[in-house]
Design brief:
By secondary structure, this protein is an alpha/beta fold. It is built from 12 helices and 20 strands. A hairpin with a 7-residue loop joins strand 19 and strand 20.
Length: 437
């Protein structure tokens, strides 16, 4: 059996449904109406009135998941898949049923008795659980010290995330204040920090900014704290999969020969080595995480990995994506296992032509600042506007090393000249007539 599922973002993938089942989506108004009906049918409206009398000594309405699931299975599944949306609507419904008061109580909604497959030991928490509704089991035995503080050696700062991207945030705040103090621009500068650029974040922060501003912004400038004199106006497209293999499993001695999820996954990963990948456009693949199995004498019933596919060309990415899916089908058939591919990250790419006004502007600003720039491709927040055909450029500030480790450090000696370059770029962009792209 072979199956592919596409999630909207990391941690918001479809939960398992019966064969032929369809995940139901709700508007905010529909969710509130559902909760209102549920509270009335199952007698929680009386408990809400009692809560109003006891508030603030009692601040939460406790609801049994079994009651909710019995009322509407689709709503129960939606709660497990998108708890933030479901709980917010539930609390709004509760407030709407409360008698008038000043100030009006703001009680919480607590769900008790989650299904056993939603119970996860602390040690098993992984990125795949982000955004899902879980009951976490475990005992915290030891609290380690908060580490580490920022240390300085001359212009070199050391701390996790100091270059990528604490320095970028600091530079943004400095530049925004400088523009406000020194310029009278035609346009408006919006300075925004966001989340989700790394790992399985799928650029959700930048996507939210795009949803708000979109093409109203004539240009986008993305700051990277640790890549001084690197300039990116070409975004690398990527697709990320969580690949899950399930098998019959069994005892390593008694059931020897039964399909193993780990063996099948290893076979699939090895097959990736046969994939032809072009150098132009540059295309890559990488398996970054592998999980699975239970004990040394158990034939694994489940195993999974995270696969990252990237390419400078959309067509090349589509080809390697098709090859990966074909290999998964072949491996499932050859090993007697089920293999499911779930998209957990999808970044579109884009590129500005060499004669674009942003490219000319950056070249001129770099010459004025005395910085020899290096034109690169990369996967950054700039991907979002570039994929929509809107001008964007990613500019670096310091020189970082040991990215994404506890030993990350950044040399800030290049920051003054980098800030001068970025300021010139911003000033030129803000001097352009409104709406000119």
């Amino acid at each position: 059996m072979y199956e592919i599922r596409v999630g909207r973002s990391a941690g918001l993938s479809d939960v398992r449904r019966p064969p032929g089942g369809v995940t139901t989506e709700y508007t905010a108004e529909e969710l509130i109406a559902k909760w209102n009906e549920f509270f009335e049918i199952h007698g929680y409206d009386t408990k809400i009135m009692e809560l109003a009398d006891l508030y603030p000594e009692k601040r939460s309405l406790e609801v049994q998941f079994e009651d909710l699931n019995r009322y509407d299975t689709d709503l129960g599944l939606y709660l497990l898949r998108k708890p933030n949306n479901a709980l917010l609507a539930g609390e709004q419904a509760i407030r709407g049923m409360l008698p008038a008061a000043d100030p009006k109580p703001r009680p919480h909604l607590r769900i008790l008795g989650l299904p056993t497959d939603q119970h996860v030991p602390i040690r098993d928490l992984r990125a795949k659980h982000l955004g899902r509704f879980l009951a976490v089991q475990g005992l915290v035995r030891k609290a380690t010290e908060v580490r580490p503080k920022v240390t300085r050696r001359g212009p070199v700062l050391t701390a996790p995330g100091i270059g990528d991207n604490s320095l970028g945030v600091a530079a943004m705040l400095h530049l925004a204040a400088t523009v406000q103090r020194q310029l009278t621009p035609r346009g408006t500068l919006v300075a925004a920090a966001n989340v989700g650029e790394e790992g399985l974040g799928n650029l959700r922060g930048m996507r939210a900014l795009w949803d708000h501003y979109g093409t109203r912004a004539g240009g986008w400038v993305v700051l990277e704290g640790g890549t001084f004199n690197d300039v990116e106006v070409a975004g690398v497209a990527s697709r990320r999969y969580q690949i899950t293999v399930t098998a019959a499993g069994g005892h390593s001695w008694r059931d020897f020969g039964q399909p193993s999820a780990i063996h099948a996954l290893a076979r699939l990963i090895t097959a990736f080595e046969t994939l032809p990948v072009p150098t132009d456009p540059r295309t890559t693949y990488n398996v970054g995480v592998i999980e699975g199995g239970t004990t040394v004498n158990t034939i694994a019933g489940q195993a999974s990995c995270l696969l990252d596919l990237r390419s400078e060309g959309a067509a090349a990415l589509a080809r390697i994506d098709g090859s990966v899916n074909a290999l998964a089908r072949e491996t499932a058939a050859a090993t007697g296992t089920a293999i499911r591919l779930e998209v957990v990250g999808d970044r579109a790419g884009g590129r500005l032509p060499a004669d674009h006004w942003v490219v000319r502007l950056v070249n001129a600003a770099a010459t004025d600042a005395g910085i020899p720039v290096q034109w690169k491709t990369g996967s950054t927040d700039a991907n979002v506007p570039l994929s929509h055909g809107v001008p964007a450029v990613c500019l670096g500030i310091g020189r970082a090393r040991e990215f994404h480790t506890l030993a990350e450090e950044v040399d800030t000696s290049s920051a003054p000249s980098a800030l001068g370059l970025i300021y010139r770029v911003l000033a030129a962009m803000l001097a352009r007539p409104a709406g000119q792209v």
